[in-house]
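for ur thesis appendix - Putative cytochrome B subunit. copy paste whatever u need, i formatted it the way the template wanted (i think)
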Amino acid sequence: MAGNLLIFVSNDAYNAYGHALTSGNIIYVAETVLVLALIVHVFCAISLTKNNREAKEQKYAVAAKGSKRVSLASRTMAIQGSLILIFVILHLITFKYGTHYETTVNGVVMRDLAKLMFEVFQSPAYIAWYVVCLVLLGFHLSHGVGSTFQSLGLMEGTYRDTWKKLSYGYAVVVAAGFIAQPVYIFLIGN
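the 3d part is after this line
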């Protein structure tokens, strides 16, 4: 995310960052690791959901209340994950495989991703879709990070609220960081 925020510095800084990411073979290693991580994530999510459903033979007669209540983020993880996957695919189609403009930064010819972003992020519908998906990503991360803390046994006792706040905080920072870029571009125009 930090690299994406270079758009706030300058188009050249952003383009140089994009060029540095894609000019070597490391991008292929990173993409492979990310795809494998996604596959493992989906497999684990499906397996966990299946195990949880098998563990309780029937639904509870009375819905849980208070701190025992299941959050909306928790109940909609599969829907969120599916929409986030669609978002990622469309994001890749748009930015990795989309229109190829060129620019020169410090004597090096490279792809002008900043120009592409300024072009794409002028559509209010695209901005709305982008923001909604990133808010969903925030919910997804918040629940996922909180569940990780719980699985590690950290959500017990006096630090429960601290860990919950950390998971919410992390989700807000990530979502807001990614939302800032398209909103900024939309508001300032070219």
